[in-house]
Amino acid sequence: MKRKMIAMLLSLAMIGSMLTGCSVSTGSSDDDKKTEDDAKGEESADAEDGTVTKSDPNMKDREEINLWFWGAEPYAQEAMQKILADKYNASQDKYQLVIEFRPSVDTDMSTALAANQGPDIVYGSGPSFVMPLVEAGKLEAMDAYAEEYGWKDRILQPYYESGTVDGKLYSLVNGVSTMGVFYNKKVLEDNGWEVPTTIEELESVMDQALEKGLYASVTGNKGWKPVNENYGSLFLTHIAGPDTVYKCLTGEEKWNNPNVQAAIEKSKEWWDKGYLAGEDYVNLNFSESLQLLADEKSPFFIGPSIAFQWAASFFTDDKEENIAFIPFPATEQVPDETYTLGAACTLSINANVSQEHKDEAAKIIDMMMQPEFMQEMTEAWPGYWGTPLKDLTTVDTSNMGYLSKSFVDVVQNISGAVNAGNFGFYDNVFFPAATQQAIVNIEDVWYDTISVTDYLDNMDKEFAAEFEKGLVPPIPKPAGIQ
Amino acid sequence: MSRKKFNWNYLLIAPALLISVSIILVPGILTIISSFTDWNGISPNINFIGFENFKELFHDKIFFISIRNNVIWTVMFVTIPVCIGMLAAMLLLSRKKTRSIYQVAFLIPYVLAPAVNAMLWLNIIFSPVVGLVAYFKGLGFDISSPLASMKSAIYACAGVDIWHYWSYLTVIYLAALRQTPTDQVEAARIDGCNAWQLFRYIYMPNIKATVSLMFVMIVIGSFLAFDYVKLLTGGGPAHSTEVLGTYAYSYAFSSMQVGKAAAVGLFMSFFGLIASGIYARLSRKEEMQ
Predict the structure, then answer these.
(1) Is A433 in contact with B122 (Cβ distance < 8 A)?
(2) Is residue A413 a part of any domain in this protein?
(3) Which domain holds residue A305?
(4) Among partner residues B129, B145, B233, which is closest to A291 by beta-carbon distance?
(5) Does ipTM top 0.85?
(6) Where is the segment annotated Disordered (chain A) (predicted)?
């Protein structure tokens, strides 16, 4: 009898474990979920791939306009449903916006579009993702909509241009991201360290932190190897300089030039000194890094500004205002405040849907390119929706929490710097796919499996092939380029 | 004149054959064709480039690192889980009343999704924040996660996969061992066989077919390894855990070079085919005997 009980318990444990592995957490209990579903609509989760689809059963008679998005956290999904889908659905009575949150959205999207399927609104992880889709005729040119909604006048020029191919608009970046330095104010104060304004000061604080047994900075690529590209892009902007990178991307210079070489060598120097979380780099993700920063184990987290969205989980209560963000400090090569232009995501229109659906997709994209949308989304989901608009003065931060407000400040600063031409190039926005992958592989240099020269020679070869095929997105001119 | 009898067998196997042709043969042929092109997976513009993809692979250091890692994976899998599984099965053979409980307990990692297993190891064992590594570090031990080292990462990945897999072999071997005729076992015991001799001369010959089949399945599976490497290291650090599966994935979905990914995929199938060929040959030999 006893043995049977044990066997039953173990079987139950096994079944429970299986279900745990297959289920999708929505962050609320079943009862809560049921109540939410009754009130807000239907949510279905595909146990196989974790896709969550949000739709309203009361609107089953309406035509669906589909948007596939990445598998954001439950609170973020709720915000998108409420601020985007519910608003759009209430604005008319013919269509229903259905958002599917797919953890593997990039690969799903490529596969679906290749088969002339896919959603009406095409999510992309950056303009370079869009290039092959345009070449294959999968995306609709949006110039007519740009004129109708005045996008060109409202959107920051480098971001607008990055979505064009041969002069036609195919995608819009709807969330800016940049590389910078998050710091823990308390750690700096407790140790008598000043907020660094130059790279030398930054390195000096990191050296002292290491001596005190802290991490120099916290970051890591656990679970997402492309985190490496953050540091590749960062050093290209601040050591090689935007003008050098511009010349490389436009084919005027080769990648194996001394300035780019100096940038890659600087990244290697940082790696060797343990400035990038030391040997824990491969064992940390952004959430854990921010947890360590909140726990005062490090003065800095050097990473993308979209990390504000994860900071909200760790900088809570009396710790909330311990975090702050500064642009990467001045270097000898780039002394002015300069931002590496990155994109949280891009939005395009599927070429293989009806004209009516294209029109509605454009209307929804325009809703997402409004300062009001940025304001509402940032209040609910700080750190992701930095709409690249020239004028953000109408964004009211009075009702925002500390993190949301800090994020809006960052986006406004980026906007100002971009207008002045002080920007560099984030690889996932401006580099073609294989060259971008070469930047992701920068860890080959860090781990000494390849020399800097050979690494850049390979990168140059990959880039030359892609440049010849016309796969490089339009490159906006930074300040100093005639 | 006798009417030829209709053979229903052909009709009955038709659905399975149709499915196999549609979802295995056709994509298989398309993969072979793709490997001779520069297709990016989306574009309708496809150029045939002959053996260029294969030539590039043969000049690619990472491709050979991937093959080496697949070989390491195979060697580890045909030894460690086989030995542990066989030992556990032999021990369970004598635990007639409790072996069901043990089997269920052992099988838990096997039935868990790879993503869950990987998260368990990443967060509970290897994490420098909350894992065992952090705990021992806190006690003053100078240790770090094996995933961080180029030398140990591939063994750590294979170790996690073995941890999840060995119980499956235990169940299979146990099922085979139980088929051994009891009269043979009892006769051997009466003749004074010790445990090793009993295993070597009675059980082993009886389960040889199962062991051979599992050997081939392990070899094929090892060259298709993907999930645990992708989840634990993504092929890093610095490609040190790259296997053919992750390398093909990276070409297909990161570099958008589906033609080259198809070429890598062909090598994965090639090694699996060799293992299948060996198995078919061995089976035929046994039948002849």
Answers:
(1) no
(2) no
(3) 179-341+422-468
(4) B129
(5) no
(6) 24-58
* Residue A138 forms contact with B (CB below 8 Å): yes
Q: By the CB < 8 Å criterion, does A457 face chain B?
A: no
**Do residues A353 and A299 share a domain?**
no
Q: Contact, A281 vs A303, CB < 8 A? A: no
List chain B residues with CB under 8 Å of A135.
Answer: 42-43, 45
pTM for the whole structure: 0.83
Domain membership flag for residue A211: yes
Burial A54-78 (b: 16+ CB within 10 A, else e): bbbeebeebeebbbbbebbbbebbb
- Kindly report the number of other CB atoms within 10 A of residue A207's CB atom: 14
Query: Between A and B, how many residue pairs show a Cβ–Cβ distance under 8 A?
Result: 119
> How many angstroms separate the CA atoms of B252 and A433, rounded?
11
A258 and A350 both lie in a single domain: no
Euclidean distance between CA atoms B186 and A69, whole angstroms: 65
Is A481 domain-assigned? no
Question: B200 to chain A, minimum CA–CA distance in Å?
Answer: 32
Q: How many residues does chain B have?
A: 289
Domains, chain B, with CATH or none? 43-288 (1.10.3720.10)
State which residue of chain A sits closest to B149, comparing Cα positions. A279
- A106 in reach of chain B (CB within 8 A): yes
Q: Report if residue A216 sits inside a domain.
A: yes
Q: At B73, give phi and psi (nearest 5°).
A: -60, -45
Do the chains contact at B255 and A444, CB–CB below 8 Å? no
Q: Is A14–B107 a contact, with Cβ atoms under 8 angstroms apart? A: yes
Name the residue among B126, B148, B239 with its Cβ closest to that of A444: B239
pLDDT digits (tens), chain A, 482 positions: 555 555 555 555 555 544 444 433 333 333 343 444 444 455 665 545 567 777 777 777 899 999 999 888 888 999 999 999 999 999 999 999 999 999 888 888 988 998 899 999 999 877 777 888 888 899 999 999 999 999 999 999 889 988 998 899 999 998 898 999 999 999 999 999 999 999 999 999 999 999 999 999 999 999 888 899 999 999 999 999 999 999 999 999 999 999 999 999 999 999 999 999 998 999 999 999 999 999 999 999 999 999 998 898 899 888 989 999 999 999 999 998 999 999 888 999 999 999 999 999 999 999 999 999 999 999 999 889 999 998 888 999 888 889 999 999 999 999 888 888 999 999 988 998 889 999 999 999 999 999 999 999 999 999 999 999 888 888 988 987 66
